[in-house]
């Protein structure tokens, strides 16, 4: 399998380390219950099909990437820097919070 790093170009997957599913959102450690932290760390869906995963380019640019891959065929449809994904997620959360806290007439 080859992964197209946005910074280094196409590379063999041996240059990367797989972390796991990119979908779970870490609970706030200070506010989260032990059950919520347990679920975040240990419970994962193992679904077939397209999934977003975290990969680390340790033998290259050392960037964290979100790779969209079909687990049945290993076909990769998208690779995005994890930083960009995190910024988009934070912006979306900020908009949702702003809308939820808007004064009602």
Task: Write a compact overview of the structure shown.
The chain is an alpha+beta fold and 105 residues long.
Overview of the structural elements:
This protein has 105 residues and is α+β, with helices and mostly antiparallel strands. The protein is 27% helix and 31% strand. It is built from two helices and six strands. The chain has helices spanning 34-42, 82-100; strands at 2-5, 9-12, 17-21, 50-56, 64-70, 76-81. The strands form two sheets. It has a four-stranded antiparallel β-sheet. It has a two-stranded antiparallel sheet with strand order 1-2.
**Order of H and E elements:** EEEHEEEH
The proportion of strand residues reads 25-35%
- Read across the widest sheet, the strand sequence of neighbours is 3-4-5-6
Low-confidence stretches: none
- Structural class by SSE content: alpha+beta
How many H/I helices?
2
Distance between the termini: 56 Å
Count of beta strands: 6
Bin the helical content: 25-40%
Major pleated sheet: 4 strands, antiparallel
The overall average pLDDT, rounded, is 89
Shape: globular
Radius of gyration (CA) equals 17 Å
């Amino acid at each position: 399998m080859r992964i197209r790093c946005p910074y280094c170009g196409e590379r063999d997957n041996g240059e990367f380390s797989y972390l796991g599913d990119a979908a779970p959102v870490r609970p706030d450690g200070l506010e989260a219950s032990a059950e919520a932290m347990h679920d975040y760390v240990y419970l994962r869906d193992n679904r077939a099909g397209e999934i977003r995963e975290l990969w680390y380019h340790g033998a290259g640019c050392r960037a964290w990437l979100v790779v969209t891959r079909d687990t049945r065929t290993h076909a990769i449809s998208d690779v995005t820097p994890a930083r960009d994904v995190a910024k988009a997620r934070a912006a979306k959360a900020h908009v949702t919070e702003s809308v939820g806290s808007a004064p009602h007439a």
